[in-house]
Amino acid sequence: MTFVPQPKKLRFDEDGQVAETIQGVVEYKKEPDHIDEEKRAKIIELKKEKRERLRNKLVEQEQKFHAALFGNKDTEQKEEQKEDTEQKEDTEQKEDTEQKEDTEQNEKTKKKKKKKNKKKAPEPISKEKESAKDAALAYLMTFIENKEAWKFQKVRQTWILQNLYYQHQIDNIHFKHTLTYLQGMGDRQKKETIEEAKLMLEKEGITDTIAKRAKKIIKQL
């Protein structure tokens, strides 16, 4: 009779065999006769279920790990894309607003230019203004033609200085005589007239006639 040492705990393999290692040699012993086929099949089934549960658990853990590892990256990418989209929309909205403001500003500027360029309709000349003009021109011509009979009048000189640049008040012929008159004024009055002519040249939107008269006044005085 051969003696086979019995382990403290029996370990069954997939086929229901009892496995025991003695000095590196694996020996198999048939399970006792009292374990019938039905129980052995049940044990095998339970082991399969256990392995299946373990496999499912490992797969689930792997899926969770993958989701934790790559899911965050996907979320970050989505957030970055969302931020880029919002930033792009904000930029487009700002550009539209700026373009609209520029358009409105250009329209306002054009309207202002049109108003400046529009010539004012000449106001009806009243009898008093007409008489003041006639009196001032008569005063001027007296200075040119008959200086002995001429007498200085501050009111007439003021009118001439105020209307030097306007052709509808002093025409070209009378303007030539006006230059002669200006040369006869005092130094202080000449200096003030030159400064006023320079200011007229610095103004925007002046006519060619005004510019030419201002330059002639500066040159003559």
Task: Give me a quick take on this structure.
This protein has 221 residues and is mainly alpha-helical.
Please give a structural write-up.
The chain is mostly helical and 221 residues long. The protein has a domain at 127-220. Helices cover 68% and strands 5% of the residues. The chain has helices at 37-117, 127-145, 154-162, 172-183, 187-202, 208-220, and strands at residues 18-22, 25-29. Strands 1-2 form a two-stranded antiparallel sheet. Helix 2 packs across helix 3, helix 2 crosses helix 4 (172-183) and helix 5 (187-202) packs antiparallel against helix 6 (208-220). It is rod-shaped, with a radius of gyration of 57 Å. The model is unreliable at 6-10 and 20-31 (pLDDT under 50). This is WKF domain-containing protein. Residues 64-131 are annotated as: Disordered. Residues 138-198 form the WKF domain. It holds the Pfam family WKF. Residues 73-108, 120-131 have a biased composition (Basic and acidic residues).
| Overall 3D form | rod-shaped
Helix content: 55-70%
* Cα-based radius of gyration, to the nearest Å: 57 Å
Q: Give the N-to-C terminal Cα separation.
A: 153 Å
Cross-sheet strand order for the largest sheet = 1-2
Largest sheet: 2 strands, antiparallel
- Helix and strand element order: EEHHHHHH
Could you name the ranges where pLDDT drops below 50 across 5 or more consecutive residues?
6-10, 20-31
Total number of beta strands: 2
Strand content: under 5%
Total helical elements: 6
Based on secondary structure, the structural category is mainly alpha
